[in-house]
Write a structure and sequence with these properties.
With about 190 residues, the protein is an alpha/beta fold. The protein has 5 helices and 9 strands, in the order αββαααββββαβββ.
């Protein structure tokens, strides 16, 4: 959060630094939306965002050698939540999804919110055993005005569907891709005058 950098500093003074990280391909901005409703771009709050590193290797290097060794040794007590979220941000970005998240004092935070198949699709990332506990997601899903009928939760566990929640192993994020836009032929030759 920009406010945490320095209490007296304004966003316009540090904006260029954030933009440089994004334009250089070092960081991926994930913008907050005020409501998880279509189109997400219209609900974007551009002054509130999260930055993810564009490479998991950079992230684990920042964490240090101990964390890398614990990952390689497959230690189960390591909290991999930030690593998993970063991996999901990378994959979504690679597949052309504009990155958004939703955060509300009333409902809580959704890790990612994307437009998928003409609908809003909330995505949660869970690295622990309590992956079926997601109070913010449940509240958003039960809010009728949002018209959200499906949510994906990426976990360490197998595929499980408990409508409207679909649980998938974390590696399956690679299969979530943007639909190709439908093409409408409006060529002049098609019409007879």
């Amino acid at each position: 959060m920009v406010a945490d950098i320095k209490k007296s500093m304004r966003f316009d003074r540090v904006q260029d630094s954030f933009m440089w990280l994004y334009k250089a391909g070092v960081a991926l901005p994930v913008f907050n939306v005020t409501e998880p409703c279509l189109p997400l771009l219209l609900n974007e709050k551009s002054s509130l965002f999260k930055l993810f590193l564009s490479d998991i290797g950079l992230l684990t290097t920042i964490y240090g050698k101990t964390v890398k060794l614990r990952i390689l040794n497959q230690e189960s007590d390591l909290n991999k939540g930030a690593i998993y979220e970063n991996a999901v941000a990378q994959e979504l970005n690679t597949h052309g999804f504009p990155l958004y998240y939703y955060n509300s004092k009333k409902m809580g935070e959704l890790d990612f919110v994307v437009e998928y198949r003409r609908n809003v699709l909330p995505i949660e990332v869970k690295s622990g055993k309590d992956y079926e506990r997601h109070s913010a997601l449940s509240q958003v899903m039960s809010t009728e005005e949002y018209h959200i009928n499906e949510a994906l939760i990426f976990t360490n566990h197998n595929v499980k569907h408990n409508h409207p929640f679909c649980y998938m192993p974390i590696y399956m994020i690679m299969f979530l891709k943007q639909d190709e836009p439908e093409f409408a032929d409006i060529s002049v030759n098609k019409f007879k005058f």
